[in-house]
Amino acid sequence: MLKVPEHQVAGHQVRDGKLGPLVDDTGRFYKPLQSDERGSKEVAFYTSFSSNSRIPDNIRKFFPVFHGTQLLEVSGGSGLHPHLVLQDVVSGLVNPSVMDIKIGTRTWYPEASEEYIQKCIKKDRETTTVPLGFRISGWQIHHESSGYQKPDKRTVKGLNKEDVRLVLRKFVSSDLDPLDCSLASVVYGGSAGILAQLLELKSWFEDQTMFHFYSCSILMLYEKQLPVEKKTFRSQVKLVDFAHIVEGKGVIDHNFLGGLCSLIKFISEILTCPCPDEYAGKACLQDIETNWHDS
Fold first, then answer.
1. Running along the chain, 295 residues long, what does each successive block of 10 average in pLDDT?
2. Is 178 exposed, middle or buried (0-12, 13-18, 19+ CB in 10 A)?
3. What is the value of pTM for the model shown?
């Protein structure tokens, strides 16, 4: 049975007759294809990537598994619509904390229309995309005492550099103290933590010249309370959203690589100095949380 994703934190959502992704109980994620060239570009990327023998096995784990395309009935009785069928990256997790981060100082691709380019430039300048090389598009944090906390869109769009630093700290903090970073060493740190995975991706992007990843996002996810049968704490990094991929033509993707390096720097700083100025940090976080809601 298809249903709306419970843990989606950014992107288009099924609402008021609008198309959005769906999931099933078998671990598959159904993403509606955009009707313009972006839809065909994303299918072409997944098809090419999944069969490309030059992609190292250790890099494939960062991309959702591609299961082809499928026509699905959409809401509102408007008929069948083609969907990408992908791995549901949060399937099997009970209470995941998730963050969506759009990478790169430039989110528009060279072949885009002038109208689309100007729209992207405006948003890139109004957010942290230009100054930081990435912007946080959404997140949810699970707390044992209060359930999920998610920000509204206005809060996310208004994040500045210091807000980004605080949100990245909040993401790995306990229920008791919103900025104690008590989970940083196990979520961000360690040989299998998020930082190690980002560094593994960075090593590939320093060499790969096959693709340029415009407007692509990194998902960071983990679970505080694991099912009984799972005995190890597991953090995951996934790349998603490939409707704006273009051929690399032998040139390194400096746009994505630069943004990735910037994110790595922010997370490394948290591991090096997990406790910021306590008074200032908590005051800023309180302002951000004004527009959060519990669910």
1. 79 67 91 87 94 95 96 75 93 90 95 93 96 95 81 90 95 80 93 97 98 97 67 83 94 98 97 66 49 48
2. buried
3. 0.88
